[in-house]
Design brief:
The protein is 33% helix and 21% strand. The termini are far apart. The protein has a seven-stranded mixed β-sheet, with helices on both faces. The protein is α+β, with helices and mostly antiparallel strands. A hairpin with a 4-residue loop joins strand 5 (154-162) and strand 6. The protein folds into two domains: 20-58; 75-266, no CATH class.
């Protein structure tokens, strides 16, 4: 019919993937979509690589306790060897601190200023001290933690030097909860001494040379632990003339105080 107006042709809706800039470049919608997908994937890959690079630059995390066990203080003096001994039956009367509650005193442990051993060996007291805070006498995080777990209430240290000045030695006595705690500490020191040890007493007369050769021993004595630490004052390794066994036995003269405590509980032997 001549009076009928022609119907308008509906326009095709614009694709979501038609970007003005890309359309101006002559790219069809499907081409634009493909290009956007490729660009997105490339962006994710680049971001992932950047994240890996940042994480790598941060380094790896090591728990503090694990790291501290392997770190040795640069100024620390420590023994090159250690041997431990279990408590003899003789000290069973003092295996429980509740039965031996009287605190240690400097007089009973270090009252004897000179310790005499075999072969005319004498060790003179150069300084002594008793600390109620046992952690103040030690270094090494794991050792300090173990001593705290053993409920240490006293750490007595005596620093000795030989009459000729050739040797240096320190005797340390730890007052622990009971015989079980003492035995476990001595056993753990078989390996633990490499990353923690007793601090040497400061003295103007004698000092442990940093990095010098020394030897040590640990002795469970009921609820006590005795630590003997010996070496040459010049830090040199021992020769055939250096009898460290006799040296250690001489320093253990400080343990007479523990023997007296046993006798005080059991009475003198018949």
């Amino acid at each position: 019919m001549s009076g009928t107006r022609p119907r308008k042709r509906r326009r095709t809706p614009r694709s979501d993937w038609q970007l003005p800039l890309l359309t101006d470049w002559g790219l069809r919608p499907e081409q634009q979509r493909l290009l956007v997908i490729v660009a997105s994937i490339a962006g994710v890959v680049v971001s992932a690589l950047a994240l890996v690079a940042v994480v790598g630059s941060l380094g790896s995390y090591t728990p503090e306790r694990q790291a501290s066990a392997a770190v040795i203080r640069p100024d620390a003096a420590l023994p090159q060897s250690f041997q431990g001994w279990a408590s003899p039956k003789l000290f069973e009367p003092v295996a429980d601190r509740s039965k031996d509650a009287k605190p240690l005193t400097a007089k009973e442990i270090f009252g004897q200023k000179t310790l005499t051993g075999e072969k005319k060996l004498t060790m003179k007291l150069a300084g002594s001290r008793i600390d109620a805070d046992c952690s103040a006498t030690l270094w090494g995080a794991e050792l300090i933690a173990r001593v705290a777990a053993a409920q240490c209430t006293q750490a007595a240290r005596g620093l000795y030097t030989s009459a000729d000045g050739r040797y240096i030695g320190q005797y340390t006595l730890l007052n622990l909860r009971d015989g079980k705690a003492a035995a476990e500490l001595v056993e753990s020191l078989e390996t633990l001494y490499r990353g923690g040890w007793t601090l040497p007493l400061e003295s103007s007369k004698v000092t442990y040379p940093a990095g010098g050769y020394t030897e040590a021993g640990g002795y469970a004595l009921g609820h006590y632990v005795g630590l003997v630490w010996v070496g040459r004052s010049d830090g040199a390794e021992p020769t055939a003339k250096d009898d460290y066994v006799s040296l250690a036995l001489t320093l253990r003269g400080a343990e007479k105080a523990i023997y007296r405590r046993v006798v005080a509980i059991t009475g003198p032997a018949s």
